[in-house]
Amino acid sequence: MGTVSSTESEREPLLVPSVPETSTHTSYSRVYGRRWLILIIFSLLAFMQGIVWNTWGPIQNSAKHAFGFSDIDIAVLVLWGPIGFIPWLLFMWLMDKKGLRSSLLLSTLLMVVGSGMRIIPLQDLYLRRWLIHGAQLLNGLAGPTLMSAGPLLSTTWFAPDQRATATAVASLVCYLGSAGSFIIGPLIVPAPNDTQVVDKGTGQDINHIKDRIQLVLYAEFGMITVLFVAVLLYFPSRPPVPPSVAAASQRLSYRSSICRLLSNVRFLMIALAYSVPTGVAAGWSGVLDMVLTPAKVSQVDAGWIGFWSIVGGCVFGVAMARFADSIRGMLKLILLLMLAGASLASTWFTLTCLTRVTHLPSTAATLYTSCILVGIFINSSVPIFFEIFIETVYPVPEGITCGVVTFLSNLFTGLLLFFLTFYTTDLSWLNWCLTGSCVFSLVLILFFRESYDRLYLDVFVSV
């Protein structure tokens, strides 16, 4: 059931010309200029969700002094993001039945409430920490929509020769938000004078750190509130006329889609190839400051390394998606090159951190270069993976397909961070997990057989 291609009846468009003998393709498909506004609003929301998720990792030393957080607290604050994916089936059902607008409104409302909880200035640090943990969970609940709806948005609003590019923008901006946290936090929030012992430091120093953290939290709450109002005022689920034949074609039902995905060996194969390295990399980058501390890298320098690794991946990902739009049918080859690069870069970084054993030079330049290359190759593969998912299982709806794989990715992130709560002394095992995940994905891609059912529909049926 899951390994067969879509039938001709499933490829039939829902909207057809009133007079087939004389009508052309342009009479029942149209691209609207407002699609860019829709993409911008969605991308900004994903950007803010990424910023809120990664608020605490880059300023972990300051948060320990200001709120009494422990290493376990920092790991759990990052872990709330993957935990928020537990009810992902509910969000996928809402997206499939009610449209992207309803699902996005609910997700944005959760972000507003969560970011509002973080700014309540309680003097009781115990209660304040519980509020912050609850707020991070609410922000994580917005993840299933914002991290998986990019391909649905691109198919619904964009022409076939712009789909991969729109998918890249919508799916990578949340990573860009995480990168922004690496810069915003360390630049605004000062590091404590003593970064090793939490219970030291003057009261004036701690109060100043609290004030600066509060400033960051207020700014994030204000931006999310503005975006919620924008979605409330204008964010339609779909255009009046679809932009392509594939956008107008009949899709499988929610239950049939889940059954087909779980029984499709090729999909499960490519889903693991995506979710294992991206999930491990997300957890690894969320605690990058902790990973680099043994290498004598400061909080600010670790922030810059994380920033450039994610920004590089976003820029390179959009460029590769644009290349995939212009030269179709090359998705597997692109993924092979990206994952080969990720495997080499992660191996280099892991061996560099083990300089006492390998005697490789461990300098700021080597750490910067290897870490940034890891982020570039892994993050830039995300939109290419999304496109090949949809092509493989079409006509399963895009939101359901990407919802499944983002859930799997966050599941692996959660498992990694869960083990981190037990093994916080020596973090070299995190680097080995990253290297192993990239090699594992590369092997799966080598044996994957690609297909392009959706592309067939747009190129041949629409002619």
Structural notes for this entry:
The chain is mainly alpha-helical and 463 residues long. Helices cover 72% and strands 0% of the residues. It contains 22 helices and no strands. Helix 1 packs parallel to helix 5 (100-118), helix 4 runs antiparallel to helix 20 and helix 13 packs antiparallel against helix 21. The longest helix has 31 residues, at 203-233.
Taken in chain order, the helices and strands follow as HHHHHHHHHHHHHHHHHHHHHH
Low-confidence stretches: 1-27, 194-201
Please state the overall shape, judged from the principal axes of the Cα atoms: globular
Helix content: over 70%
- The Cα radius of gyration reads 22 Å
Please state the average pLDDT score. 81
Q: Strand fraction band?
A: under 5%
Q: Major sheet, described briefly?
A: none
Concise account of the structure shown:
It is built from 22 helices and no strands.
Can you tag this structure with a few keywords?
single chain; 463 residues; mainly alpha; 22 helices; 72% helix; 0% strand; disordered N terminus
Architecture blueprint of SSEs:
Layout: H1 35-53, H2 60-67, H3 71-83, H4 88-98, H5 100-118, H6 125-141, H7 143-146, H8 150-157, H9 163-188, H10 203-233, H11 245-248, H12 254-263, H13 265-286, H14 288-292, H15 299-326, H16 331-353, H17 355-358, H18 364-380, H19 382-393, H20 398-420, H21 428-446, H22 453-461
Helix pairs in contact: 1-5, 1-8, 1-9, 1-10, 2-10, 3-6, 3-20, 4-5, 4-20, 5-6, 5-10, 8-9, 9-15, 9-19, 13-19, 13-20, 13-21, 15-18, 16-18, 16-19, 16-21
